[in-house]
Design a protein that fits this description.
With about 130 residues, this protein is mainly beta. It contains one helix and eleven strands.
Length: about 130
């Protein structure tokens, strides 16, 4: 059974960095896409970026491109979201999600993860950016 557990959230000041972790179990990352999503109070869940295990490709949405980076730790079956230059508008609950997917990462990958009924989701971790 696929399981995802996020960690690493917290309260930081604007301009700071955080690294979120998504620990995966019950499946092989090589055949999956891992997406990072976030949901702020009163807003819909939105995609942040994704990683595809088959080719190591990544994709980021415009609001975080250049500030966020996704990486994989093969030894720990984990995927990380490195967040730099954090802004107050990055405040949200961050979720990781996984589903079978081998094509190169793109906006369509994020959309598929968000809409598919077979996507597995973690429980989320809170990120608060405030002075």
């Amino acid at each position: 059974q696929r399981q995802l557990v996020e960690s690493g959230g917290g309260l930081v000041q604007p301009g700071s960095s955080l690294r979120l972790s998504c620990a995966a179990s019950g499946f092989a990352l090589d055949y999956y896409a891992i997406g990072w999503f976030r949901q702020a109070p009163g807003k819909e869940r939105e995609g942040v970026g994704c990683f595809v295990g088959s080719d190591g490709s990544t994709y980021y949405t415009g609001s975080v491109a250049g500030r966020f980076a996704i990486s994989r730790d093969n030894a720990r079956d984990a995927v990380y979201l490195q967040m730099d230059s954090l802004k107050p508008e990055d405040t949200a609950v961050y979720y990781c999600a996984a589903d079978l997917h081998t094509p190169t990462a793109s906006a369509r990958t994020l959309q598929s993860l968000r809409l598919s009924t077979s996507t597995s989701w973690g429980q989320g971790t809170q990120v608060t950016v405030s002075a």
